[in-house]
Specification:
Layout (H helix, E strand, L loop, with lengths): L2 H14 L9 H14 L5 H22 L9 H5 L9 H14 L7 E3 H11 L3 H10 L7 E3 H11 L11 H4 L3
Antiparallel strand pairs: 1-2
The structure holds calcium ion (CA) (2 copies).
InterPro entries: EF-hand-dom_pair, EF_Hand_1_Ca_BS, EF_hand_dom
Protein name: Calcium-binding protein
Organism: Streptomyces seoulensis
């Protein structure tokens, strides 16, 4: 496995542990859903509900695939096994990525402006300088916007164990 992917897995675990109790549990995903939907300026109820459902599905997928000892929570050690079978998470990650990117494009023109991108990424727990570096790596246009499809692909790459040298590495580098 790529070192970059291990760093990402550890970072994602830390971010996902939204209540900071050291393991992943349903409350983490409820917390993140409420934070992200609260940051989703301009989005309608449907888009927010889709995001909340995507977080719920994310937890259910993790619990079904990774809770090796069946105690209803996931330790970092259990979570690391996600890299062994990435295809089991692809559908869940795809829906999560599309629901999140949709919140970044409330007017549906296919473009995401930096301020809303930053607000959503902060709500998930990423740090400001890393978010800016990521947005820049996505190659914003003259109006400082990126394409929805670019962000969807970037989120999917971020969770892929075999990727390196991707824009998402900017989320890891300054944090660890
Ligand atoms: Ca937790
Ligand atoms: Ca467990």
């Amino acid at each position: 496995m790529r070192t970059e992917a291990i760093d990402r897995v550890t970072l994602v675990f830390t971010l996902f542990d939204a209540n900071g109790n050291g393991h992943l549990d349903p409350e983490d995903f409820e917390l993140m859903a409420s934070r992200v939907t609260a940051a989703a300026e301009g989005s309608g109820e449907g888009a927010r509900a889709r995001m909340a459902a995507a977080f719920q599905r994310y937890w259910e997928t993790l619990e079904a695939e990774l809770d090796a000892d069946g105690d209803g929570r996931i330790t970092l050690e259990e979570y690391r096994a996600c890299v062994l079978a990435p295809e089991r998470f692809a559908g869940t990650v795809r829906e999560f990525a599309e629901a999140l990117a949709a919140l970044g494009d409330p007017d549906g023109d296919g473009a995401i402006e930096r301020p809303l991108f930053t607000a959503l990424m902060r709500a998930i727990g990423f740090a400001g300088p890393n978010i800016d570096a990521l947005f820049d790596a996505f190659g914003p246009d003259a109006e400082d916007r990126i394409a929805v499809a670019t962000w969807v692909a970037g989120i999917e790459d971020f969770y892929a164990p075999d990727k390196a040298g991707i824009p998402g590495d900017h989320l890891v580098s300054a944090v660890v």
